């Protein structure tokens, strides 16, 4: 089940740490019978663990659907590591799509291995952690990774391309680190693969492990407004009136109005909201609408 959950170790870390305290409180016995004798309240059960448990239940109810391996497709392995955890994604993709950009390839997930760096492993250099993510992925998915055509291995740590010459990775790599990488290189010799180093921003499958099912709060909500076929379909649409035209004319400077004729039609006498009586201004015997009143002009054109 855990192979169907991206970033499983990060998700359940609070519960894993609590379980370790339970085993310690039971005298070091790592059995269900020994753990059953320990009360969770005695080892620090809190709201953090309740929230973690609920998140885990929700994820289990919506696990990623994995695909069956297809020998006609190319297997791809994406591995990545952080300070405390490592994760990888094994996918398959049609061979004719490998030349496309990653976001245009139709990858089908096969497995989501993951793990946590504990003890001395937590103090490893980043090159060791990145290499371990690859090695452990190959070990766990060994039954998948021996196709006749081999597979593609992707990493965002370019130095890992030279893992078969570990002493040349970086001049500052300690001797014990180089020896460790050399041992892992011997293990990788049992596989047929092509390794690619890709920029971190392109390593989307590996980076997706930390973002899959994210519960980060929304910063803003985006709502798409449908384009109206006609303004008449808008519930807020109001036909222009003499009053609205008069209000637009009143807002125009007096020096502009002084050159315009007042209408003598009694129907064009308007009482404004301020109580002022106003005869509509005319231009060439036509009611004048100020150029600044663009919204009013649009409503007149409907």
UniProtKB/TrEMBL annotation:
Pfam family membership, one: RT_RNaseH
KW Isomerase (keyword) present: no
Claim: Transferase is one of the keywords in the record: yes
Keywords: Endonuclease, Hydrolase, Nuclease, Nucleotidyltransferase, RNA-directed DNA polymerase, Transferase
Domain (Reverse transcriptase RNase H-like): residue spans on this chain: 70-191
Entry's Gene Ontology molecular function annotations: endonuclease activity; hydrolase activity; RNA-directed DNA polymerase activity
Name of the protein in question: Reverse transcriptase RNase H-like domain-containing protein
Source organism of this protein record: Aphanomyces stellatus
Lineage of the species this protein comes from: Eukaryota, Sar, Stramenopiles, Oomycota, Saprolegniomycetes
